[in-house]
Write a structure and sequence with these properties.
By secondary structure, this protein is α+β, with helices and mostly antiparallel strands. It has helices at residues 25-32, 59-77, 95-106, and strands spanning 5-16, 41-52, 80-81, 115-123, 126-130. It is built from three helices and five strands; from the N terminus they run E-H-E-H-E-H-E-E. It has a five-stranded mixed sheet with strand order 3-1-2-4-5. The protein binds nickel (II) ion.
Amino acid sequence: MSQIYVTRRYRFCAAHRLHTDLLSPEENWAAFGKCNNANGHGHNYVVLVTIRAGATENSNHLSSLDQLVTDTIIERFDHQDLNSDPAFSALTTTGENLVKVIWDILKPLLPAESLHKVGVIETRDNYFEYTGAI
Ligand code: NI
């Protein structure tokens, strides 16, 4: 049995600061270095959403995906401070956590078994991906 996957690419720009109130200022600096600086910094995030292509797959299906991601991910995070988003009230805004937050937003809004993988490119050299709980 073969399975085709389709990946769509999306982009948003956002600020963040790697910081946790569970650690002292010194421990935060030791853990996150300059990413802990109080003024934050920004990234041009790339989000890669991979879905399983099925019998009903067509370009209209991808338009629906585009609309869904735009409404729930891009509109929510673009030109925002990720640390201020409720999803991160108890989470550090690492790429690891961001990719899982995006998965958790999209998963219940897509047909069952449709979502295969979410990837987040944070910097030239940092890429995170998540395929759901094992
Ligand atoms: Ni950063």
